[in-house]
Each structure stands twice: as structure tokens, then as C-alpha cells.
Amino acid sequence: MRIRATVAAVSGALALTAFVAPAAHAAGSTTLAVTFSSVQVNGGKAVVVPATGSVKFSITYKVTHAAGLKSSDFFTVPVIYHGSAIKSSEYGVAPSDLPSCTNTSSTVESCKATLSAGHNDMVNSTAGTWQAGGIAFDKNGNPAVFANNLGKVSVQRLSKLTVNAAPEPVKKGKTVTVTGTLTRANWDAAKYSGYAGQSVKLQFRKKGSSTYTTLKTVTSSSTGALKTTTTATVDGYYRYSFAGTSTTPTVSATGDYVDVQ
After folding, report:
1. Rounded to whole angstroms, how far apart are CA atoms 58 and 99?
2. Contacting residues for 83 by C-beta, under 8 A, at least 6 apart
3. What is the rounded distance in angstroms from the CA atom of residue 143 to the CA atom of residue 75?
4. Domain architecture of the chain: domains with CATH
5. 0.85 surpassed by pTM
6. Where do runs of H (alpha helix) occur along the chain?
7. What is the spatial distance between Cα 98 and Cα 260, in angstroms, rounded to a whole number?
8. Could you check whether the bond before residue 169 is cis, i.e. omega within 30 degrees of 0?
9. Do the Cβ atoms of 8 and 20 come closer than 8 Å?
């Protein structure tokens, strides 16, 4: 779900409407002796969001509470958000269902939640580093604890890469022209757009081998287009490979086979 500070419900907090009961709108909130720790998002991997649709990922964390506090006295919600603090963040993602928590001691709970992030939850300019955080609510649904900066999360725009090597077949010693396109999710437009000015490697794998070697580096055009030439020597597969950036994951095209005669 998308979180916007402009729809704050209580004390300037982000509105987590999937969790907050009607009582959450009552005036005033309580103080809870609750802390979050050991937060891990998506197993430590980047959250890569497509141009349309969504991607699911998990968050695990621990909650430590006062000895006299029972599980029925509060509940917690993990979030990822863009910015310095949950309350001031305009973009974020929270789970649609309450997390599953298990008591590991009289004061500690181990929790896990599943979140779903889609292009409607963010804009292109927010790709990159996000933060993990947590909110603890009292039994009446009032947000009482906002735990910020519990760990960095990389949120990236899904990338795609194509390749076509021609002619097929080709005579040994002749020129092979290799074209392709590097695109990535454009969340603002809900489509894939060319990724311009990026260094992309042209690689070759000889027939019967499992290893690609780099032949040269090509820069993508303003539309993400790639084009270069090489000399045909032996049968094998050509592909483009992109190392990725802080906002876009690495991606390699499926090799295109060329028969050399």
C-alpha cells in the first residue's frame, strides 16, 4: 500500500488504514515500552519493482517490550519508507495483513510480515536507498512508537536487456552486427523506458563453453538502444550484459546464437 504524509491520521503519523481500527482516531495516544531490532528486508537483497504489477517480499524483525506488557496490549507493523523519518515520509510500503509474531521469551517477539510493492507506491525519483522502520500501536489502535532508520533498503527499477546478432549464419571473418535495447521500469508512466548513457558489455560464449568473455563496451543511446560490430570467428552466443547502478539492477540478455560457416 502507498503511504503519504498528506493522509496522516494521528499526530502526523502515516495512515496505515489496513491496520488501524476505528478507535485509532480517538484523541491522544499512549506510550509503549516497545523497541524494534534485527530488521531484515527481503533477505538482505534489493527490492526490485516492475513497471506494472507488484513484487512481494518479506520483513523479519524482533520486538522487545516491557515485562508487564502482554501481546494483547499492542501490535506492530513494519514499513519501508523513503526519507529521513516515517512521519515525514511521502512514500512507503506497509503490509496488508498483520505480521505473524511468536513469543521467544516473556519480553521478546520474533515477527515476520509480507509486503507488496508496486509502481503506484513510488515515483522514479525515489529509486535508490530507502529505510526500514516500525510502528507500534496500543490495543486501541493508537500509534505510540515510531522506530526510524532500522536499516537501509535498496529499492530499484526493474531492468530488461535484449540482443540480436546478425546475419545468421555468417561466414568466418565477416562482420557480425549486434543490436539490443536496455530498458528499465518507468514507474511514473507504468511502462519500460530506455536507459540512456549506460555502459553495457558485449560478451561472447563459444559453442560448448559455459563462460562468457567481454569483447567490448558499448554506451546506450538516448532511447537505450545498443549497436556495435565484431568479427565472426567461431560458432557461439552473443549477449549484452549490464552491471547495474544504485537505482537499477544488473541484467544480462539471453545469448543469441550465430552459426559461423
Report:
1. 10
2. 89, 90, 91, 131
3. 9
4. 5-157 (2.60.40.770), 159-258 (2.60.40.730)
5. yes
6. none
7. 59
8. yes
9. no
| pLDDT tens digits in sequence order for the chain, 261 residues long | 344 432 233 233 334 433 333 333 333 445 799 999 999 999 999 999 999 999 999 999 999 999 989 888 999 999 999 999 999 999 999 998 999 999 999 999 999 999 999 999 999 999 999 999 999 999 999 999 999 999 999 999 999 999 999 999 999 999 999 999 999 999 999 999 999 999 999 999 999 999 999 999 999 999 999 999 999 999 999 999 999 999 999 999 999 999 999
- What cell was used for 178? 549486434
CA dist list (Å): 237 to 104, 116, 171, 242, 244:
53, 37, 15, 16, 22
Contact of 163 with 178, CB cutoff 8 Å:
yes
For residue 178, give every residue at least 6 positions away whose Cβ sits within 8 Å of its Cβ, in sequence order, or none: 163, 164, 165, 202, 226, 227, 228, 229, 230, 238, 240, 256
What the block records as the C-alpha cell of 244 is 547495474
Contact criterion met (CB below 8 Å) for 186 and 111: no
Q: For residues 120 and 212, is the Cβ–Cβ distance under 8 A?
A: no
Distance CA 142, CA 9 (A): 10
> What is the rounded distance in angstroms from the CA atom of residue 258 to the CA atom of residue 244?
27
CB 163 within 8 A of CB 224: no
**Alpha carbons 4 and 70: distance in angstroms, whole number:** 31
CA 36 to chain centre: 22
Q: What is the largest CA-CA distance in the chain?
A: 80
